[in-house]
Amino acid sequence: MFRMSDALRYWFLVLPALAIMIVFYIWPLLGIWQISLTEPKPGVANYTEMFDSTAVQTSFILTFRIAILTTIGCLILGYIVAYVISNFARRAKPLMVALVLLPFWVSVLIRSFSWIVLLGRSGIVNDTLMATGITDSPMRLMHNEFGVVIAMIHVMLPFAVLPMMANMRGISGAYVDAARGLGAGEWTAFRQVYFPQTMPGVMSGALLVFVLSLGFYITPALLGGGRVLMISEYITYQIQEFLNWGLGSALSVALLVATAVVIAIAARFVNLRSALLERN
Amino acid sequence: MTDPILTISRATKRYGPVHALDRVDLTVEEGEFLTLLGPSGSGKTTLLSAIAGFAPLSEGRIDLRGRDITSEPPEHRDFGMVFQGYALFPTMTVRDNIAFPLKVRKRPASEIKKRVEYCLGLVQMEDFADRMPSQMSGGQQQRIALARALSFEPQVLLLDEPLSALDKKLRADLQWELKSLHDSLGVTFIYVTHDQDEALSMSDRVVILKDGRIQQQGVPDALYNHPRNRFVADFLGKSNFMDLPVRGREGDALTCAVGDTQFPVEAPGAEVRGDVLNLALRPERIRLGAPGEEMLDGTIRQVSYLGERCLVMVDHDVIGPLLISQATWKEGVTPRAGLPVSFGWDSDACVVMEAEPA
Questions:
Q1: Residue B283 carries which DSSP code?
Q2: Do the beta carbons of residue B332 and residue B288 sit within 8 Å?
Q3: How many distinct structural domains can be found in chain A?
Q4: Minimal Cα–Cα distance from B169 to chain A, Å?
Q5: CATH number of the domain located at residue range(s) B238-352 in this protein
Q6: Smallest Cβ distance to A180: which of B75, B91, B148?
Q7: Which residues 150-179 in chain A show a CB within 8 A of chain B?
Q8: A175 and A136 within one domain
Q9: Of A69, A271, B99, B189, which shows the fewest CB atoms inside 10 Å?
Q10: Which residue of B has its CA nearest to A182?
């Protein structure tokens, strides 16, 4: 009987997934690179146009600003949630973890529409504010960066909570006990002993949220109402509205490169292997 | 005698219906090496946590030099503590770990530097100051944990099974070091362990706990030679237990019988209820001889050779199998299975056991 060598067996198992990736992902991606250099005529015209355009620059700056704000918001809120679940929840722990994961099972589209219901001109928040007399006229809570950041923090929160929770699970309570036994108050023990140990979790949560935010489309498109053009939406406009495939492709390449640069910089501070692959 | 440094009165800790500590009274003298010894679940670690302030008592109180500290948070108690898993802060160097208790006490930098050097010297780890804890072996980490707990000159040092994760040889070395450190510093040590050898070799006084209650306390040799009840006699070393009828009594001198053979038992102060005595007899107190040489006759069932001594299991018609420990360098009978022998003991070898509290 024919026996496969280990190497052959390995390739047989990997091959189906690899084939799909190459045919349906890598190949079209290379096509995008090609289009960016050939449409409408061969050369680097798309890239020079991209670097010269103030609209593109504005969109890139906006994208990074929103991604940074979202990351900061997710880290602060997520840290508190992860900390409470890891250190205080006992019987409620499975329930709290389920509540963190719950948004994953609801479509991003539905979650974004819910925020429109909440933040719209005659949404629940504005109605309540006016009914209680805190404001006279409705405030603009969406179709601006404020609304986009709020909704994005909501969508991205689990991606911050999960790596931080995984990290905190590995930190023994003995460290804080030791710190307090050695004379440190609760706050000092947290700041000097517990918090530094959670940095790997914080960094991997930050990286995950930031990278996902850079290329995010649905939520900014819905909550921004066309006024907050993050780079993904800008690309869609170029291709769908202006049929400008050349510039659209060049922007996609630029986004890909920007994301790769972020990951490369982060890799100097975060152990990516432990951050993204192994949950310790 | 000076006043005790710590007084624990009627300390009780309940977890639901379980009493982890049940009305424990204990005093700790200034400068002594006190060991809390017991099997897992005996309450020894709970008692230490209560002293450290991590596990508040359900009832009872703890006084430190006459000051009630029952409800003080751990950081105000000024006790050094060495944990079972060392608990060195993994994000700090050895130097920063040892400096930590001094920094939180806002001591001046020059003093911190001096103290850290001094404490590294105490545990002979001067060359490791800039290492991270993860770069050191268990024994090395344990020394640093000790240096850290001593750096701020605490009034009492609490040690929670500090040697249990180390291998046997290293453990023996560190026992000597801990003991000499205690003797040279004069700090009060409260040491928790489940290892009887550790307890006997280092302590000034041993407290034996079971089910949240103190069974017996005293200096090591008193505990070993005069265990009060069966639990203590069995937990501390090995013992043979015999229930034998009393045949006579004159003052402290009792006469017991094994079958037709009568023998004297010196049991000063023993309370004898009924006409059956529960006796404990250490294996090393039994003499082994040729048939007819000693008081009773039996047959060797099994022999276990341990190097410096061997353990001999001897069958007897009435008292059943009896464990005898014999030094291997001794002349006389060479024990082997199936050999008929005789055995006997001195009148002060047997200890009368108290009836177990129901």
A1: G
A2: yes
A3: 2
A4: 26
A5: 2.40.50.140
A6: B75
A7: 172, 174-175, 177-179
A8: yes
A9: A271
A10: B101
Q: What is the total residue count of chain B?
A: 358
| A116 & A171 share domain | yes
User: Strand B59-64 and strand B6-15: pairing?
Assistant: antiparallel
Q: In the prediction, which pLDDT does B358 show?
A: 43
For the CA atoms of chain A, what is the radius of gyration?
A: 23
Instruction: Decide if A178 and B152 are in contact by the 8 Å CB cutoff.
Output: no
| B280 DSSP β-pair partners | B241, B351
What ipTM does this complex have? 0.78
Could you tell me which residues of chain B have a Cβ less than 8 Å from any Cβ in chain A?
52-54, 73-75, 78-81, 83, 85, 87, 89-92, 100-101, 104-105, 148-149, 152, 158
> Do A58 and A33 share a structural domain?
no
| Pairing of β B340-344 and β B287-289 | antiparallel
Which site among B45, B104, B142, B156 would you substitute to test the A interface, given the most A Cβ atoms closer than 10 Å to its Cβ? B104
Are A171 and A231 contained in the same domain?
A: yes
Q: Running along chain A, 280 residues long, what does each successive block of 10 average in pLDDT?
A: 77 92 93 89 88 91 95 97 89 89 86 89 86 84 90 92 91 91 92 92 92 91 87 91 90 92 84 55
Rounded to whole angstroms, the Cα distance separating A47 from A35 reads 12
Structural domain includes residue A208: yes
Identify the domain containing residue A5 by its residue range: 1-38
Interchain contact, B101 vs A188, CB within 8 Å: no
Tokens of B334: 């060479």
Contacts of B71 (CB under 8 A, 6+ apart): B56
CATH homologous superfamily for the domain B6-234: P-loop containing nucleotide triphosphate hydrolases (3.40.50.300)
The CATH number for A161's domain is 1.10.3720.10
CB A249 within 8 A of CB A265: no
Strands B156-160 and B261-266 turn out to be unpaired
**Is residue A43 in some structural domain?**
no
The answer as to whether A14 is a domain residue is: yes
Per-residue pLDDT reduced to its tens digit, B300-337 = 999 998 888 889 999 988 888 999 998 877 766 678 88
The residue of chain B with its CA nearest to that of A196 is B91
Contacts of B149 in chain A (CB under 8 A): 182
Residues A182 and A223 in one domain: yes
Domain boundaries for CATH 3.40.50.300 within chain B: 6-234
Residue in A172, A183, A199 closest to B75 by CB = A183
The three-state DSSP-derived secondary structure of B170-229 is HHHHHHHHHHHHHHHHCCEEEEEECCHHHHHHHCCEEEEEECCEEEEEECHHHHHHCCCC
* Min Cα–Cα distance to chain A from B109, Å: 17
Which of A 174-233 lie inside 8 A of B, CB atoms? 174-175, 177-185, 188, 192-193, 196-197, 199
- CB of A193 within 8 A of CB of B89? yes
Regarding whether A83 and A22 lie in a shared domain, the answer is no
Beta bridge partners of B44: none
For residues A11 and A128, membership in a common domain is answered with no
Find the CB nearest B89 among A175, A185, A188. Answer: A175
